Amino acid sequence: MPTPVSERPHPPIRRKPAAIRSERRAGVAMAAPALLLLALFLAVPVILGFVLAFTNARLISPNPPRFVGLDNFIRAFVDDPTFLHSVVNTFVFALFVVPIQAGLGLLLAILVNQRLRGVTLFRIIFFIPVVTSIVVVSILWKFMYQQDGLINSFLDTVTAGAWNGVAWLNDPDVALGAIIVLSIWQAVGFHMVIWLSGLQTIPEELYEAAEMDGASPWRKFADVTWPGLRPTMVFVLITITIAALGLFVQIDVMTQGGPVDSTTTLVYHAVRKGFKEQEMGYGAAISLIFFIAVLLIALVQQRLTREKD
Amino acid sequence: MTVHRSTGSARLGRRRRLALSYAGMSVLAVFFLFPLVFMVVSSLKPDAQILSDTDSLRAFLPVGDISLDNYGEVFERVPVAQFMTNSVLVTSAIVILGLFVNSLAGFALSRVRWAGRGVVLAVIIATLIVPFETIAVPMVYWVSKLPTLVLEGGLLKYDFGWLNTYQVQIIPFVANAFSIFLFRQYFSTIPASLDEAARIDGAGWFTIYRRIIVPLSGPAFATVAILTFLPAWNSYLWPLMVVQKEELRPVMVGMQYFFQLNTQWGEIMAYTSMITLPVLIVFLVFQRAFISSIAASGVKG
Lengths: 309, 301
Known about the structure:
Chain A is mainly alpha-helical. Chain A has 13 helices and no strands.
């Protein structure tokens, strides 16, 4: 797109209307492909989700969807105990994963932030599970969690035979806990890296000043490190919470929601109803409930962490 | 370091802390590595030996009856090569198209002035909070209604439904709000005087993008490529729902194959090793770029 060149070599103070128009056209044209795709595959599904949630749509059906008002939501909260279990399990999962993963991530970050020989190697090792697919991780741990699997053998060895092996994923009391452990194992390295980049923004002089005052390692952490990590903390907490609430793959690969609904989750239930059982309208309603929960929690978390400043 | 009170006991304390750090990190390293070592080692053993080895350290050592038999079996029973091809194709299409489309949008949002730019950017940033899982189910319904072109007996025909295609695995993931945001941030750090000089020389906006901005933005392209590659290679929920045809399935969904047959753990470990090791090797070679890309994703907070 050649544009008329100004005769005078001065910086253009008043640009010609033609140049402004061509710039505007160029801007819209260059943003258009991405915006069109985002509209089609982000905006439309969000809106469609809202609409479908109030219908009885099915994935493949000769009849057009019919408006059913709040039926899907009433069904979820009144007639569908599996949905209620899904809500509880999802929140229990998040309640454990969020603080443990954030805390352990911070501990790892502090460890690998030391100026020590070979520390990069540890950084890489802690990060390896992150680049391993969660599908692979789930299968691998499913194997290790078997009655005669590696985890029971290990516990048997360290307790000198006192441990009675359990089939972790077949026991409703421990299945969700077992999934929590592997989920933290897989993703904690990601948050270590985020914390680490937060740690590295804290100016060295602050630590030197604290040293001068003879501050203990604990005081240095409480007075210098922690306040400097506040923005990172908000990010880490929100990211982990949203990821935790979206728990799906581990469930689909390892337990299919069982035993007796002890590991079913919101997303797993939405996919089971909306896709596997073809009840699109109901699946969309569950997705919408999940969506609203995510938005509320993100808002609350942002508000809470901001107030402390 | 405190010079004044650096007595013998302080030095001892420091040494003890050092030893503690290494001990702690080593224990953690074992915790993070043992499942993967177990996976690769088990993939080399027959099933009976995998189970009998679990009660000793032999579980982590390639000892006993070691062979590549499991790998041979996998290739014989499962269309691994097809799954791999599909994953490579889909992943590279998403990465390459995504780099182009999102960097172009990032350019338009950072360096070209047009009405509505601010609003568009604000909306894009707001969408970052929407997890894919919330829209996955309605999106299946949506793509099942989208029009598509099919070649039938040499004739190009018009049909509905994107289910069971390559495009349904690619097109929805090309545009990415976070990639656009990262590009925009990076482009904003390049001095605007470069554009102005080029414009005086008569360069059009696309030329400025291609000749000035892209060559100066290697790190941004690397970051976005890595952040796009990982979820694309690992995608599971979406292809699980929209691709039922075996010949179009990616590696992660191909895994389901093994649960229809009776469970042969050695073969499963061989398959998971095969689809994990390429990514691990790429990661180990480019570990610095990987880790700094993840760190860069923290800027959105």
